[in-house]
Amino acid sequence: MPGASPARTAALACVSERRRRDARMRELLRSSRALGELSSEDKALASRLALGTTSAESVLDEAIDRFASKPSRLEPRVRDALRVSAFEILYLGTPGAVAVSQGVELVRSVAPRAAGMANAVLRRLADEMAPEVARARAACAECASRKASPSARDLSLAGGFPEKLAELLLSSCGEGPAAELALAQLDPGPVWVATLPFACDALDVPKALEEQGLMPRPERLEGSYGIGAPSALSSSSLVGEAKLAIADLAAQLVALVAAPRPGERLLEIGQGRATKTLLMEAASWRMGGLCEVVAIDNVASKAKLARARLAEAGLSDWTSSHVWDAAALDAPESPLGPTDAFDVVFVDAPCSGTGTMRRHPEIPARLGDDPSAQVAELAALQLRMLAQASAHVGEGEALVYSTCSVLREECEEIVERFLASETGSSFEVEPVDVAPAASLASSLISESMTGEGFLRTWPSSASWDGHFCARLRKR
Fold it and tell me: Which residues are within 8 A (CB) of 158 and not within 5 positions of it... i.e. 6 or more apart?
């Protein structure tokens, strides 16, 4: 008996390890020895299975519980194997007989006596639930042409996320964007890189990308390339030497909207791993020189990594990273003085991450059984951070607010609430296309600008993620 394929076995190992360690799947995939021993084709399948199983866990468990006679008594390892197989049956289009047979072998590899049960469950899943998922995805696909009006259940089945989250997406985004997001949710997201010109002025970037097997294609943003072979990035010296930054194309546009002019001072709230810091310095460089960045993040490990990346890029003299709670910038111990003012204050706010769920498959589960309540808590924090940051905007200077959420509650409504407050009454909306660095990608920014003057992108298959950005000017 041949047993389960190496790709499926590796995917199961990652899914089980993630459950035991409560780890992030992408981090596990990067360090997995099992994946490292696979061919490129098998590695791609294993990654797709592991990421998809993590993202669609709620729908997969619903399917397993529906067809298993005693679901509460399933061993964790058996449930893991059933999840991997259920994802392949429902979402990958593998011929049913092949997927069921491989699923049975996957279960047999961890619990031989459960093979008969697995055969019965997976056959019913293929016969009864796979058509439901196909109909749901068809309803989402037909939404764009107004031939169908998908329900929250359709969105949930099509995107593999909980129905409560689907309801929130429908009410906040509307049918079209929500349906497009659901269809893109379980597909691999495209990969882009941005050239960091201050670190590779003498480098022929397209040639270097070709030589490293990355299959680059230039974008309508100076120094940005889509990557046709993203798996090769893990071994690329260009990334390790900080000559390139891996960043979604929409995130690169956000950095253009926030980038100050050369020599100006920027306060970055929510620096994370410093990807946007690098992108903003690159934009400033292309306008004539570097800018000074003072950055704040409340996670010490991220600040440590940010300092290391910026040092590798040669930016230590132009940047400083501080560990602090951005919702308490007015505290006496704050790294900022009460009168410290900047030319640009950039708030990259913590959010639901609903615009980047396909890249971070744990997000649907993290939002829990009541995503609306979690979003309300995040919105309160976002508004507080924006108010605190606004005190450090110089007269006549810019305040930029950004999230990677598709929800109005965390985006447009936060800006509206801030402007309506006493703190925000001295600010007004400035269209994103007048930002100093907007000319570096004028057509992309114009196409993505809303009627209010905000930057807004939506996740879709073979395209960028969902990002929001507003630029406000202090009168």
Answer: 133, 136, 137, 139, 140, 150, 179, 182, 183, 185
Query: Which pTM was predicted?
Result: 0.94
* 135 CB burial (10 A radius; 0-12, 13-18, 19+): middle
Q: Exposure of 37 by Cβ count < 10 A (0-12 exposed, 13-18 middle, 19+ buried)?
A: exposed
Q: What domains does the chain contain, in order, with CATH numbers?
A: 6-184 (1.10.940.10), 189-246 (3.30.70.1170), 247-474 (3.40.50.150)
Which parts of the chain have pLDDT scores under 50? 1
Report the pLDDT value the prediction gives residue 2, as an integer from 0 to 100.
Answer: 76
Cα 292 to Cα 397: distance, rounded to the nearest angstrom? 15
Residues 6+ apart with CB under 8 A from 12: 4, 80, 81, 84, 106, 109, 110
* pLDDT at residue 36 in the model: 83
Q: What is the dihedral of CA 308, 314, 316, 322, to 10 degrees?
A: -40
Phi, psi of 182 (to 5 degrees): -60, -40
The candidate with the shortest Cα–Cα distance to 257, out of 1, 14, 467, is: 467
Q: Write the CB contacts of 397 (distance below 8 Å, at least 6 apart in sequence).
A: 341, 342, 343, 344, 345, 473, 474
85 neighbors 106 (Cβ within 8 angstroms): yes
Residue 243 near residue 195 (C-beta atoms within 8 A): yes
